[in-house]
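Quick one:
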Amino acid sequence: MKGYDKISSNELISEFLQNSGCAKSMHKNYDIVVIGAGAAGMMAAIAAGRRGCRVCIVERNEKPGKKIYITGKGRCNITNACDMDELFQNVMTNHKFMYSSFYRFTNEDVIAFFEKEGLSLKIERGNRVFPASDKSSDVIRVLSRACRNCGVEFLFHSRVKSILCETDGLQAVKGVRLADGSEITASQVIVAAGGRSYPSTGSEGDGYLLAEQTGHTVTRCLPSLVPMNVRGEEPSQMQGLSMKNVEMSFYTRKAGGKKKELYREFGEMMFTHFGITGPIVLSASSRIGSVLETEQVYAELDCKPALSKEKLHRRILRDFESNPNVSLKNSLGGLLPRSMIPVVLEIGGLRGEKAVNQVTREERDRLVDVIKGMVFPIESLRGWNEAIITKGGVNVREVNPATMESRQIHGLYFAGEVLDVDALTGGFNLQIAWSTGYAAGESAAEQILVLHREMA
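Output:
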C-alpha cells in the first residue's frame, strides 16, 4: 500500500473521481450534505450512506482526513478501550451531553467497525487503541473506502459560505451555498468542520461561523491539549529531557499562600526550549487555560512519586555512604537524569563540588524538597498551531444530544470538534468525533427515510 504522505493531491483526487462518481458533472441535489471530511464528517457520511441516502461531503482541502493524518504523532489513537464510566470521566466539558451518542456508537462499536473494514488494531498502555501498522494513513483509507462503497461523493477544494434555510413556518434546511456562489440542495446538513486547532489542516473555525450565521451560540474557544510556556530558564537547560513515571500537580495560591490544586496526574512529560509538554501537560492544559487569564498557575514536578520524602532521604543517604568522597553533583547520576542535576542543585542552593560526606542534614532536606517538588510558574499556553483540540464551540444546549440535530433549525446537525465538548488525551476526542458523527448521520438518514415514505 502506498503511504498516504506519498500520494499527491492529484492522485488522491483522481482516485475519488474514479471510485465515488465525484466528477465535474456531479449532481447538485442530495439528501444530505456533510461539511468537512474529517473523522466526524466521514463517519456521519458512512452512517447515512449505508442507509441508502445520497450523501455529498464538501471539503475545503484537496483530500480527506488531513487532521486524522497527524493525530497521535501520525499513528492515530483511534479510541480508548476503557469501560464506559472511564470514558465519561475523561470528557472534560459537557460529558452528560455525550451520554446518548456514546451508547449509540460505543468505543467497542468503533473497534468493531475498523476491524470489519479490514484494519488490524492493537491496544497499548492506558487502553489506547492504534492501527497495528502505526499508520494514520491506513485509518483514512478505511474511512475513504467505506464512503466510496456506500456511494458517498466528495467535493474537494470547496468551501461552504452559508447554510440555506426555509423560513416559511418551521425553519428548516434546504441546502448550502459554496464560496463560488453555486448551491447544493439538501434537506439535511451536517456541520463537521472541526474547530480551530491545527489551522494548517483547514480548521480555521468555519463551523463556528456557520453556526452563528444560523442563530446558534458559540461559547468562547481556547486552544486545549497544548504545551505550556514557563517563566525562567530551567526548562531550556533541560531541553529535550523526557521523564516517565513522574507526577505533576497544577495549582494556584490563595490568601496566606495556601495552594488550590487544579489538576494532578501521573505519567510522562518533557522539557522544551519554551517550557513543558507531554501527556501530563497536555491534559492539564484543558483545566488551567481559563484560570491562567486571571491567576498565576504553578506546575510542581515530583520526580520520584513512588518514594516518600523519608524514603528518598534514606536512599540519598545510602548513596552518600557508599561513596563518601564523591562530589554531590557526581553522586546523583543514579537518581536523576544528568541534564537535571545542575538545575536541581541550583534551585536547592547547593554546591555541586562539595563532597557528599560534608553535606549537612539541612542540605539533604533541601535536595529532597526539590526532587519531590520542582516548581515552574506557568506563563501561558501555546497557540492554535500546537493545540490538539479546541475547548469551546457550539452551545450543546441548542443541540439534541440524542440526534445531534439543532433545536432551532430542522435538518441541521453538528458533530465533532465544532461542538462544545472536549476530552483528555488517549483516544477520547476521536471517540467523541466517531460517536457524534455516527449519531448525526444515522439521525439525518432516518429523517430522509421518513420523507421518502411520506412521498411514496
